[in-house]
């Protein structure tokens, strides 16, 4: 079963942006993500529409943050991506009149709602600044291990 890695990829791109002092072009970001610049532009346009990033044209142009990293939550990013489906499992629909199927769907549905609420709360409480700080600590440990 294929997983939707779009949120992860966008966060990856945003962390590269956070590490740069200057704006990053779609081509720069595409290299970081091993994808096509058109895919980057399409995705970043949604983040721009949500007020997370801005873009500049011409020499020195590119994508940059519209506000501080501490003011952007993972939930903001998730919402800007159109709220992708979190879980691949879901209720059965083959026999909607069956009491057994209804019970199974109710139990599974309640568990999924609870799990999604926990995940969304975690996303809401985690900012890009938190993610950048975690990345910097991990990078420091990698350098220490190889040094």
TrEMBL record:
One of its GO terms (molecular function) is DNA-binding transcription factor activity. GO terms for cellular component: cytosol. It holds the Pfam family Rrf2. Coiled coil: none annotated. This is Transcriptional regulator. The lineage of its organism: Bacteria, Pseudomonadati, Pseudomonadota, Alphaproteobacteria, Hyphomicrobiales.
């Amino acid at each position: 079963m294929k997983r939707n890695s779009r949120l992860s990829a966008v966060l990856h791109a945003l962390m590269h942006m956070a590490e740069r002092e200057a704006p990053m072009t779609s081509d720069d970001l595409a290299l970081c993500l091993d994808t096509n610049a058109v895919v980057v532009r399409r995705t970043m346009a949604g983040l721009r529409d949500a007020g997370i990033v801005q873009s500049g044209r011409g020499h020195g142009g590119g994508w940059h943050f519209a506000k501080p990293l501490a003011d952007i939550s993972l939930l903001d990013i998730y919402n800007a991506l159109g709220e992708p489906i979190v879980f691949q499992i879901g209720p059965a629909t083959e026999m909607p009149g069956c009491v057994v199927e209804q019970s199974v769907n109710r139990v599974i549905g309640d568990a999924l709602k609870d799990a999604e609420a926990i995940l969304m709360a975690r996303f809401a409480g985690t900012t890009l600044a938190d993610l950048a700080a975690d990345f910097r600590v991990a990078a420091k440990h990698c350098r220490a291990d190889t040094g």
